[in-house]
Amino acid sequence: MTLNFSQESMLIYTLLPFFALLTVSLNLLVIISISHFRQLHTSTNLLLLSLAVSDFFVGLLVVPFQILLLEPCWLLGDLACILCSFLPVFSVPATAVNMVLISVDRYVAVCDPLRYGTKINPKRVKICVLLCWIYSVSYDFLFLFDNLKKPGKYNSCYGECVISVNGHVDLILRFIIPTTSIIILYTRVFVVAVSQARSMRSHIAAVKLQRSTTVTVKKSELKAARTLGVVVAVFLMCYCPYYGISLAAYELMTGSLINIFMIFLVILNSCLNPLIYAFFYPWFRKTVKLIVTLQILQPHSRQANVL
């Protein structure tokens, strides 16, 4: 059933922009926090920064362009139709790849902690993040290129905005491969975490001082794994319904209630990530306070102790 301009339309034009503004604001706080404070320039936080950037663009671009596409008659031309359909979602593949990178980071930290510092360092993470965004842009251009050969060739009448997307390729590259990788990696992390927790409980009384330090480090890594596990779980819950519809071979029409609900889930996922950080990470609450009170404008604020 498609939307009529009544209660559903009013809900869309008020609720979606509100969540988009909230998403942009919250992720901007994450971007400023990790970029500004030197203590937060760690490998894991660089991945969180990349994820926050992709979530920021989801909030900034997806809703405005989708509202344009909901109009009953498209009057901006065939080229604008293609750009408005593809540009808002260029950061969605980046979100999926960032989730994979976060899963790899936690896998190495928990399953191979002694070599974590050599395997995962800021320089390698920056290269991986760069490749992630190159892949995201290239992925979008791959679908964009076929439609740019002859703009408007899929329109059946004037005023339509119809584009062609290979749903099977999109399903495999943007959902099945990343999701499978995430599930496999976090299953391994969970198994190792449970094993380590049992080992700690059985030997805690006989632990020496040096060993105690190691246990503390492992506990911090396990806590980070749990927190980022929540982020990954929220990502899967928000993105699975859309691709579940694709797997069921259901045709998702632009402007339908189901389509709007799927867009809302994407926005919700990008909005929830900063809230998860605020709940689990004390450093994020501290940095938000410093940002809101403009204390980051003071000299040497980059060296502030936020951990």
UniProtKB/TrEMBL annotation:
Entry's localization field: Cell membrane
GO MF annotation terms: trace-amine receptor activity
InterPro entries registered for this protein in UniProt: GPCR_Rhodpsn, GPCR_Rhodpsn_7TM, TAAR
Membrane topology annotation: Multi-pass membrane protein
CDD domains assigned to the protein according to its UniProt record, in alphabetical order: 7tmA_TAARs (cd15055)
Keywords: Cell membrane, G-protein coupled receptor, Membrane, Receptor, Transducer, Transmembrane, Transmembrane helix
Stretches that traverse the bilayer: 12-34, 46-69, 75-104, 125-145, 172-194, 228-250, 256-280
Signal peptide: none
One GO CC term, this protein: plasma membrane
Xref: PROSITE patterns: G_PROTEIN_RECEP_F1_1 (PS00237), G_PROTEIN_RECEP_F1_2 (PS50262)
Major location (coarse): membrane
Stretches assigned to the G-protein coupled receptors family 1 profile domain: 26-277
Protein family per UniProt: Belongs to the G-protein coupled receptor 1 family.
Record-given protein name: G-protein coupled receptors family 1 profile domain-containing protein
Naturally occurring in which organism (per UniProt): Anabas testudineus (Climbing perch)
